[in-house]
Amino acid sequence: MNFVEKLLTASRRQESLLCVGLDPEPGRLPASLRQEPVMSAIVRFCQDIIAATAPYACAFKPNLAFFEVLGPAGLQVFQEVVQAVPAHIPVIADAKRGDIGNTARAYAKTFFETYGCDAVTINPYMGRDSVAPFLEYRDKGTLLLCRTSNPGARDIQDLRVQDEGGTLRHLYEVVAQLVQSWNTAGNCGLVVGATYPEELRQIRAICAQMPILIPGIGAQGGDLEAAVQAGVDAQGELAIISSSRAILYASEGEDFAQAAAAEARRTRDQINAARQKKD
Ligand SMILES: O=C(O)c1cc(=O)[nH]c(=O)n1[C@@H]1O[C@H](COP(=O)(O)O)[C@@H](O)[C@H]1O
């Protein structure tokens, strides 16, 4: 089963477009976990969050920064967290890598083979040959940054450049067009912030059948309904609406897992309501 099939299967089974982001911060763990050594505390925190929110999630997205910051043992923690995700739910490694060919090959092997992730976020800035080693893994997903959720996204991604046909377009539109042409194996996706629904709508029009990872709801304040309606495909699927802090830290007390489950369920239901409204 390739990434898109696995994503659609999980999404339909769970009736969910919600991706739970795993961005664990030691300072925000509940008091009881803060008594434990930090590595085991983070593993336990993520395991409990995964178990509590899995019924409402179509994917999990651990962000490497929050594991790498822990030092050498952080990658062991990352591995344990990836392994805690139920086998039927895809894991998206949020790594935002991008480098020359042999380095990219090592990154691809790291995320797809060493850690067994289903997809990885990649920065397309270095071009086709830097992405090619990821695309060789036909059953895995390569999700390319297109129009990110942060305010500075416009600094570079909104520049007007000529596309292959000589038409002036925003750089993010040209990225979407290029990724569409790289998608011969059906294993590409895009990353577009929920904070920019109009840009998301334009990108969905260019890449009608590609999965789009959409972070920026919750803590970043993106308009959930607008993002869902702009981001889904014609069938109301293939949008991966991601939220990290709003779910992870729904409660900083001992009831953190129940609170995360309640927030995940509420978000999943809001997303589904927005999907239905679009019909
Ligand atoms: O690639 C990403 O996931 C990503 C792209 C983007 O444009 N904006 C964005 O916030 N992200 C990631 O999505 C997560 C958002 O976290 P919350 O704002 O806590 O929901 C973080 O891990 C970000 O690194």
Q: Could you explain how this protein is built, in words?
A:
This is Orotidine 5'-phosphate decarboxylase. It catalyses: orotidine 5'-phosphate + H(+) = UMP + CO2. With 279 residues, the chain is an alpha/beta fold. The protein has one domain (3-278): Alpha-Beta Barrel (TIM Barrel), CATH 3.20.20. 47% of the residues lie in helices and 16% in strands. The chain is built from 13 helices and ten strands. A hairpin with a 5-residue loop joins strand 6 (160-162) and strand 7 (168-170). Residues 21, 23, 63, 94, 96, 121, 148-149, 191, 193, 215-216, 218-220, 242-245 line the site of orotidine-5'-monophosphate.
Summarize the structure in short.
This protein has 279 residues and is an alpha/beta fold. It has a single domain, classed as TIM Barrel.
Q: Major β-sheet, in short?
A: 8 strands, parallel
**Cα separation of the termini:** 29 Å
Computed Rg: 18 Å
Strand adjacency order, main sheet: 2-1-10-9-8-5-4-3
Task: List all distinct small molecules, including ions and cofactors, that are bound in this structure.
Answer: orotidine-5'-monophosphate
* Beta-strand share of residues: 15-25%
Low-confidence stretches: none
By CATH's scheme, which homologous superfamily applies? Answer: Aldolase class I
- Encode the helix/strand succession as letters: HEHHEHHEHEHEHEEHEHEHEHH
The count of β-strands is: 10
CATH class: Alpha Beta
* CATH architecture field: Alpha-Beta Barrel
- CATH fold type: TIM Barrel
The best one-word shape is: globular
Task: Give the overall average pLDDT.
Answer: 97
Q: How would you classify the quaternary structure?
A: single chain
Helix content range: 40-55%
